[in-house]
Amino acid sequence: MAGGDIVVGSIDGYEWPSIRCWLLSLIQTGFEGRIVLFAYGISDRAVKECERHGAEVIEVSESLISHPYRHVNKERYFHYQRFLRAIQPDGVDRVISTDVRDLVFQRNPTKWLGAHAGEWDLVVSSEGIAYEHEPWNRGNAISVYGEGVYEGILKRRPVLNSGLVAGRPAALAELFGLVYEKVYSKPSNFSDQIVFNYVLACNEDTWNVLYTDHGSGWGCHAGVMGAPARLDEVKAHIIDDPPFLKNGEVCTKNGEAYCVVHQYDRVPEWRSSLTERYSPCP
After folding, report:
1. What 3-state class would DSSP assign to 93?
2. 121 φ, ψ to 5°?
3. Residues 6 or more apart from 246 whose CB is under 8 A from it?
4. Which end of the chain is more exposed for a tag (fewer CB within 10 A), N or C?
5. Which of 41-55, 78-92, 139-153, 210-224 has the lowest mean pLDDT?
6. Mean of pLDDT values over 85-95
7. Which CATH number is 205's domain given?
8. Which residues span the domain enclosing 72?
9. Per-residue pLDDT at 228
10. pLDDT for the residue 2
11. Nearest-CA neighbor of 257 among 204, 217, 214, 230?
């Protein structure tokens, strides 16, 4: 199918219950584009359910690299950039790359991007806190790139979440190719997110990037902004207004339902409400 938008996600060993909320919530928004799931391990039942609801499942069997800490969250960048380069002649407008197990859609991403993204090459979203105030991301930054890079480049930058990124196919292919080149650069176990942030920080003149916060209505990341224990721990340092649950939806301070809610399972009230909303679907 030429034109339109594409949502892509990756899984490794997930069964249908771990995919269901992601897929069915997207369908309920009225999204009309392609839905593509890269599967590094999937059961026949899960494939059938995904296909029954209109998703394309691309099963990935080859191991691209020998590394002690190979992970789907790193491997996906290679397969995504290859996929993105292949679809560029098809006139695809935008591609939205998301995590799967802990992410739901509350609004149609095509409509939000059409209204807000304009001619931006990439759309990324903040976790609502800077590196210097978030222990897990700060630790990753220092262990992977050292104190010098952390102090000089990342320390005061907002943490950008790699579980939600959208953009034009050519720009995303370039970004994901650069991330993949670096994500296995060290023989240690670290998150792809630090590489994602480092590449964006070092290539600010390469793309036109729309940086969204929790007031934009695009993406909510609950790891910091919603989880009660984390919010209490870092509330003096958060740079966005915290989201809240309203009529079963996660909303901005102004009451606008987020297009995408990520890490909702870290907030018991959100998990209960959103799971109930999408689990009973056929």
Report:
1. coil
2. -75, -40
3. 255, 257
4. C
5. 78-92
6. 88
7. 3.90.550.10
8. 5-278
9. 76
10. 52
11. 217
